[in-house]
Amino acid sequence: MTVWNPWHGCHKKSAGCLNCYMFRRDSLYGKDSEKIEKTKDFNLGIRKRRNGNYYIKSEETVYICMTSDFFIEEADEWRNDIWDMVRTRRDLNFIIITKRIERFKECIPEDWGDGYDHVTICCTCENQAVADERLPILLELPIKKIEIIHEPMLEKINIEKYLQSNRISHVICGGESGEQARECHYEWILNTREQCKKFHVPFYFKQTGANFVKDGKRYQIPRKEQLKQANKANINI
Asked: Can you give the pTM of this predicted structure?
């Protein structure tokens, strides 16, 4: 897996921003996460080594803009350059995670058609209200590969009516990290898993988060253990 961050900055926090952890990370290094700017890795997708081989090897999975949002307004002037690189590297599998799915149509290239075979769009929805706002939009869009991510998952979320569309290829759940992390209940995770199982959709429990509740007991879990503990649950399908 490769993370490709062509630009930096989340611009503004939200109640369920997947990238709020990055605000805390940025502050450690004196970076201003309110400012949107290109990174030194802007051309990583097509960067080559001295021997002429691409820096990112063929068939790798590449997450674009993990520390920001690919569809953020302030990066509109740069996005076409990224699409050009994505189009060039059809030997890679690109994943774009966004909370701005309503901007999708105004941010895609002219030749998008019904979607690129090697690009997956993953829409975040941390609670029921956001799921019911974003997922109907998502399912109406011309995208070949669609995923849903509940991270941070802040309550039990019913997505059955969206799963039955047969367009969702994967669902990911995870708790929130950081000192001020809101709680994530294991029963919410299991509930989503059962929904996915019902509609034969792959499910992945990514991380517990820092404030994890299971069987009525609260656990404060260090970040380095959150992925490990989720993996130990052995509930991925």
From this structure: 0.90
